[in-house]
Amino acid sequence: MEDSGRRRRLLLMTLGLVLALVAGGAAFLLGQGGGGTPADVVEMADVLVASGNIEPRTTLTADHVVVRQVPVDTALQQAYREPTAAVGRVNSVTIYAGQQITPNLFASTTAGQTWEIMPADEEITLDSPYWRAVSISIPRNRAVGGDVFPGQRVDLFVSVEIGANIQVPVEDPETGELRFQPSDQAVPIIDPETGEITGVTGGRTTKITFEDLEVLKADAAEGMYIFKVDLHQAEQIAHLLQVGPDGFAMALRPPQDTRDVDTTEYGETTDNIIMTYLYRVPLLVDLEELLGFPIVPAGPGFTPPPAPEPEPGESPEPEPEATEEP
């Protein structure tokens, strides 16, 4: 009887332990699974992100990037997966810490190259522009202080000297007819009856010439900039660099301003500036006429010019003698 009671107690203890374990397991599952249903598994993907803020025009090293896992639905399709895809390349814009690294952040698609004319995946068709790259030397004071970076867009102004090899109308003194002759420095021909200028005058003229150009490379220290242009613009720039090599200046465009400029309303010359802002124009002043007496220069070593001699045949008339009255 005693053995039977002992077995009964052992059986009850074992059953109690099993029930306790089952209850504990059930409580754990309820706490973790929300009512016994397993949580949905989130699919993750490896992407390359910036380990910290990266300033523009930085050659990326392995310390600039890190591979992290992010949910698949937040991973960008173009994001790189391996550090080797970005190391050695130069970014054209600021990359922020944790930002996924994508091809559009770089000035080129090739490691070690700092710029490219067009993306490698851009298709060329029969109607595609003939894209080219040209370099222009522009000093800092005419290049937004040199604070220009690849990917930005600018307008280019050009100043050239007008006058050489210009045909100007000249009035023949014998016949009164107008004839054209070459002039190194063109002069205005004014119609005496109407007062209108029928000729042109030489001088420097400035005008916005190339608008909305993309900057491919900028070296402010050397004052050298590379722009993306079409073949016609490349040809025009090549000519302007010959006639006015130091005549280029740039204005930086805000990225959201994509409007075309009506360049027919632009263009500046000295006379236009004078008439627009009413500058006072210095004139040649006749000091003797202004002061009312002759101006005789004086100073050390100055010798006055000799007095003019009377012309031959002229003789001074004798003064009448004074007569004494008696």
State the total count of DSSP E strands.
10
* Apparent shape: elongated
Tally of contiguous helical segments: 4
Give the SSE string.
HEEEEEEEEHEEHH
Low-confidence stretches: none
Provide the β-strand percentage band.
15-25%
Task: Describe the main β-sheet briefly.
Answer: 6 strands, antiparallel
Q: Percentage of helical residues?
A: 10-25%
For the residues shown, what is the average pLDDT? 80
Distance between the termini: 202 Å
- Report Rg: 44 Å
- Output the structural class: alpha+beta
Structure, described:
With 326 residues, the chain is an alpha+beta fold. Helices cover 18% and strands 23% of the residues. The chain is built from four helices and ten strands. It has helices at 2-33, 231-243, 270-277, 287-291, and strands spanning 44-50, 65-71, 131-137, 153-162, 166-171, 178-183, 203-219, 224-230, 248-252, 268-269. Strands 3, 4, 7, 8, 9 and 10 form a six-stranded antiparallel sheet that branches. The protein has a two-stranded antiparallel ribbon with strand order 1-2.
What are the main properties of this structure?
326 residues; alpha+beta; six-stranded antiparallel β-sheet; 4 helices; elongated
Give a quick precis of the structure.
By secondary structure, the protein is an alpha+beta fold. It has four helices and ten strands; from the N terminus they run αββββββββαββαα.
Q: What topology does this entry show?
A:
Elements: H1 2-33, E1 44-50, E2 65-71, E3 131-137, E4 153-162, E5 166-171, E6 178-183, E7 203-219, E8 224-230, H2 231-243, E9 248-252, E10 268-269, H3 270-277, H4 287-291
Antiparallel strand pairs: 1-2, 3-8, 4-7, 4-9, 5-6, 7-8, 7-10
